[in-house]
Amino acid sequence: MGTYGRFPLTLTRGKGCWVNDDCGNRYLDAVAGIATCTLGHSDRAMRHALTRQLRRLQHVSNLYAIPEQIELASWLVHHSCADSVFFCNSGAEANEAAIKLARKHGHTVRKIERPVILTARASFHGRTLAAVSATGQPNYHKGFEPMVEGFETFTYNDLASFESLLNRMEAYGPRVAAVLIEPLQGEGGVHPGDPAVFEAIREHCSARNILLIFDEVQVGMGRCGTLWGYERLGVEPDAFTLAKGLGGGHAIGALLVKKHADHFVPGDHASTFGGNPFACRAGLTVARELQRRNLIHNVQQRSDQLDRGLNSLVQRYPKLLQGVRGWGLLQGLVLRDDADLAAIDVVKHAIEQRLLLVPAGPKVVRMVPALVISKREVNTLLARLDATLATLSA
Known about the structure:
The protein is an alpha/beta fold. The chain is built from twelve helices and 17 strands. 38% of the residues lie in helices and 18% in strands. Strands 4-12-11-10-7-5-6 form a seven-stranded mixed β-sheet, sandwiched between helices. The protein has a four-stranded mixed β-sheet with strand order 1-2-3-15. Strands 13-14-17-16 form a four-stranded antiparallel β-sheet, with helices on one face. It is globular, with a radius of gyration of 21 Å. The chain starts with 10 loop residues before the first strand and ends with a helix. 47% of the residues are buried.
């Protein structure tokens, strides 16, 4: 079906941070499946681990215990603030699970008849109907109304906006079950969260027994220079969602919860494919390679290098560029509002320079390369982006 406006490019194979098209051209990939291929393409450890797994067992029902699933859940719990995990297949599914958890919390703990979840404007939580209803971008709603009820939005990083909405919603008794928010808004334009605002939101939620749920689908698993986005904010959520980088290019999602927020009982929620042996082996491989290769340290070093290089480009092209924002290897190059240039224009011209980028809204060019990217490859990325901007400037 025609659900994608695709670029005129057919990719056939890849290795590390590089991909080849069907004409033999080689591109530096700063998209990585949109922040998904944590270890890059055709990683040796991933190939070996998944080949071994296919020789043993690839899928069984969740009616039985799955050793790989238990092992991955144990790793996630041991390395985070969570106490238990529900596995599914994608970020949207993880957020759907979080929405159901929030509603059950509202009904059983706060005794709300029609629970409401607060989300941020310019957010993105997925394409399924409830997840897109939670997404605070009306352009994603158009043509699919009526949206699922039970969501209200406030301005991201604006404490006054949040407090005004919370007080209005709770003026005549409990109505809010949860706050669902991204530590860094990715699709909404690469906006990192303000630690002071998030700390205040945490305090409000704790005082009223409202769940604070973080959508870490894009920032989790080391991408932001720490293992989890909440570590960048110094605020622990009651629950958080994962996908993208967790599977290193293979389909897996997860909802992680603290003990007091673990409201699901048998029959409340389920997934046929979620947490199957193959997907969990992919997740375990990513987790172990993050540690074995000390990739978070690499993210921190390459992030500093990329940030310096991008800011240098801002100085070089002041008529086109406004600034740089992001965390770790999730960086956004912000175009000037008054420049006759859109992010998609930069992405299209970068392909001619054998560089793959992705937009994050109309005026932000996003870079989310594999976490294994090297110093030399970051320099190549910057040189090819410079050549792209030079062409556009001319």
